[in-house]
Fold this sequence. Notes:
Radius of gyration: 19 Å
CATH topology of the largest domain: Rossmann fold
Number of strands: 9
Pfam families: THF_DHG_CYH, THF_DHG_CYH_C
Low-confidence stretches: none
Binding site for NADP(+): 169-171
CATH superfamily of the largest domain: NAD(P)-binding Rossmann-like Domain
EC number: 1.5.1.5, 3.5.4.9
Distance between the termini: 70 Å
Number of domains: 2
Structural class: alpha/beta
Domain Tetrahydrofolate dehydrogenase/cyclohydrolase catalytic: 9-124
Helix content: 40-55%
CATH architecture of the largest domain: 3-Layer(aba) Sandwich
Amino acid sequence: MFMSNAQLLSGVDLAAIINADTASRAARVTDVSGLPPTLATVLVGDDPASVTYVSMKQRRCQQFGLGAVHVGLPASIGTAEIVERVEELSNNTGVDGILVQHPMGEYVDERAVFDAITATKDVDGVSSTSFAAMALGQPGFQSCTPGGVVRLLEHHGVVVAGADVVVVGRSAILGKPLAALLSARDATVTLCHSRTRNLAAHLSRADIVIAAVGRPRFINGTHLKDGAVVVDAGYHPGGVGDVDFASAARVAAAITPVPGGVGPMTIAMLLSQTVDAAETRVQQAGPATG
Length: 290
């Protein structure tokens, strides 16, 4: 029988709070400007998982009063053509935020595509400009999943300052920006990856473990010290994360569920930051005249 005293770090309730605020602010933007905060999604090819993710984001836009524009591109398209379409969206005054769904294909230079998003519309926080802002503690949009993880920890009262944090996974859209955000909050961060020697030793001393490795049940309870906080940023078919939940929950003081932990926070951050961009658009336009 499974038994655990670990606190569940649910993202569902917090995401609902953020989404309610997003809807309220979106309504104000629409009333003032006559144009709702609008998110443009760009999808290359027809990967089933990517199609599902983009459709979910479009539905959430409708649900909370945001506009949605979708650009579907063939899988055969090259980097230059994708960059051109993204630049068109960056110059489109009717678009407040841009999300380019990835992966985009084996031969696409994803970094070039991400960096074609103007910083004021990079609501997914994927461009080099946004990454630099996160690393330097400057104003800008956060990568949505890392930003969501930080908000989740803060909401549940997990003390990050001074904590020994191990992030497993060094992707440019998750592990690296998360390490930057946590460092800015005075955590001591170790960023582990496939070349890390003796990963188990790093995990065994961590106060907070964040799994973003992309491998199902990669981390289990034997890797953790008693009382660790565990955040699982992975998702795999069947509702499985990067952490073996049952064994980890027996050891951890707190743990995120999968689903229902980090996932809801990612979309909530995306929509919230789209409204942030729209509010800036309205402020720059100034008061209506006539």
